[in-house]
Structure formats: C-alpha cells, structure tokens
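#struct-pred

JT: dropping the chains for the assembly here, can someone run the whole complex?
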Amino acid sequence: MPRSELRARDSLERHAGLRVDGARLLRCLDELAAIGSDPAGGITRLGLSPQEHAARTYLRDLCAAAGLEAETDPAGNLLVRRPGTPRRAVPVLLVGSHVDTVVQGGRLDGAYGVVAAIEVLRVLHEHDVDLPVEMVAVAFANEEGALIQTPFWGSHALCGSLEDGLAAKDRAGRPVSAYLAQTGGDPDRLAEAAWPPGSVAAFLELHIEQGPTLERLGVPIGVVDGIVGRTILDIEVVGEAQHAGTTPMRDRRDALVAAAEIILAVQRVAAEQGVCATATTGYVEAHPNVTNTITGHVRLTAEVRDTDPDRIARGEAAVRAECAQVAAASGCAVEVEIGMRSRPVSTAGPLRDVIREAAETLDLPHLTMPSGAGHDAQIVARVAPIGMIFVPSKQGVSHAPGEDTAPGDLVHGTNVLLHAVLGAQTAVGLHGDHVGDV
Ligand SMILES: [Zn+2]
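RK: done, full complex below.
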C-alpha cells in the first residue's frame, strides 16, 4: 500500500467522529439568502451580476475571517483554500457548486453546495486535518446562464472547455466582458481561469435534489449515479391559415390541432410507453395567434431526457415517428430538427462508494438515483472523476421561491460531504501524485 494511502486510511479512522458546525452552516445560508432577495419573491442573483458578486464578496470575507485563502479567478469563480495549499502542479480535490440563481429562484440551489464546501474546509482547517490530497472549495460563476446566456460558464472556464467565451452576451447584447470587469473577473486574462490538465484529482458536488423522490421515500441522502443527457427537437408545423367561420371543418389544415396531437404524443412516449425518462413540450408559438383565424403555423419543442444515451435516441426516434404520423393524418407539413444535444454523464464508481460509506458512518439511509437536472459536475466530468450527493427538496420544489430543505437534512448532507472528502483520499487514483511542471 503506498505511503500516501496509509496516511489517508489513518486519517479516515482518526477523524470518524468529526462533524460540521450545523448552526454555523444554517446561519451562513440565511445570510447568503439575503443577497439578491427579490421584492417580488425568492432570490434573483443572476450569474455575473452585481448580486452574484456581492455573494462572492460575502463568502470571501467570511473565509478570510476563518483563516482561509479566498480569491476570484478571471472568470468570476471563487476559489477557497487552506493556507499552504499548493496553487499549481499538484492535483486537488475540488468541492463546490454555484451561487447564482434563476430569476426569482430559491435559496438553496447551488448556494447550499458552496456554503457546505466552505463549512467542510473550515472544519478541516480548525482540526488541522492532514489530507494527502488537499481540498479546494469552489463557487462556480454563472451556472444557470440566466443573464449571460452561457450556462456552466465558470465550470467550463476552469475545465478549459469555454469556447469563444468573450462572445457571450446578455439578451440586450451587452458583452460578458463588461459584466466580468465589474464583478471581480478579468476578461483580458479569461484563458488563465483554465486549470492545467490533471490538476483536478476529483470533484464532489453536494446539491438539493430539486425533485420529490428522496422526500417521498423518507431517505435523507441521494447518491447520484448519473446526470441525464437530453435532446431538444425543434418542430415546425405548417398548415393553412383560414377564416374560422367560413372554412368547413373537413377542409381545414389546422396547424395548432396537429401540434396538439404532437404534444400529447410526446407525453405518451415517456409517460405511457416508458421509452425514455422524461419527454416534455415546453415551448409553443402559434401564428397568427388570432381568435377567429385557423392557425397556419406552429413552432414547438420536444425535449427528451435520460441517463442512457440509447434511451435518449429511442425517445427521439419515437417523437419523430409520431410527428410523421400526425403529418400524414392532418395534411400539415411537419419538420423536425435538432435544437440541442447533451450526453448523459456517469459519476465515478469509487466516489459513489465513498459517499455511501460516509452516509453509513453517519447512520444515514441512502438511495442511488439519477439527477434529472444539469449541474456543474457534468462539465467537470470531462476532466476528472465526479461524485454527487443529494439531499431532499421539500415537495420537490426548485427554481422557485418555495425551494426548501429541512435544516436537519442540510446538516446531514454536509456531514456526508465532510466524510466523503476524507474517504475520497483513499479512492482510486487519489494519492496526491504530481502532474508535472505547468
Ligand atoms: Zn444548481
């Protein structure tokens, strides 16, 4: 057994009784929730906005007071280290999430994973825990892409996969560089936000589930086995706009009726046929959208998701087949094009084991489950093994002001994260080996 692994096992045993400071964690979450609080309800703390910057500033000051070293990188990511943690050439265990929200979002999506990572780092620092692979906490900038429409901006930048980053802009056309310069980033040094290959030994992300499964089953900890991939199909239905009073029913080519048939068929593909995990029409645009005119033209989307790429492909094929049938039956022309594809991502088996062991150390039941939502972890998965921990969401509510998790569950999840950080030290390939000069 390598010396570093012996050191790690020894450390794991000695620190089995270590726990996070739950009251401190909850207080920090409350304080963070005040930043970007929206008078209309919920929290509006959009990525790369002054509100996200204020959240980073609050966390940076809190870390400095705790004796940790915090800095904002050129892309706007907040990075927090224990003093003495090497900056370069040694792989680290990266742990975190994001602090931006959607418009009128919740207080926990992303923020929980960041505050928990900082709490874990504080506990490790206070107890002077010797880690062969040092931990770095991260708050990725602009995960949601609600203002600057490049979701996963910060994780892409850190992983070196941000393509043409400075071309990003808001809906009004204001470039990302203007936002970055005002929020602690540096557009001129954006490329320097990328870490050298091999410098992330592994990534752990703690997040609220954003769905109802854990709460329904009464299980406090979710061990994520994969993050769904998705395909969005852009569908165009062309019929004939005619007078709604004078055109006999049998003579119509009503594009909205055809679109309605497609929408129901999309739902059946997942709900009744079980071809893929979910299938959704979220966008419909009808023309001319006039009360007394038969609809001539409809644009809509069909989005299919699953953790299995074959099932995504079968979902797509099923939607296409239904569209062809509707076209034949309705006399409308139906065209289907790919709007977007993303591949599903698996978490690393050894990290899933580490998370399960951490939950068992703490006597917490756990459930292995997929993530139906996207996360920064899916971007980091391109450069390092990832692990994800879920805690229950009350009534499954997320991206809304009502987003909540029981305080006890928030503390449990953070303790699991702490023990996963300790346990990850012995996981495959995490022995603090140097990656060479950079
Ligand atoms: Zn999130």
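JT: nice. The two ends are 28 Å apart (CA to CA). The CA atoms of residues 18 and 419 lie 8 Å apart.
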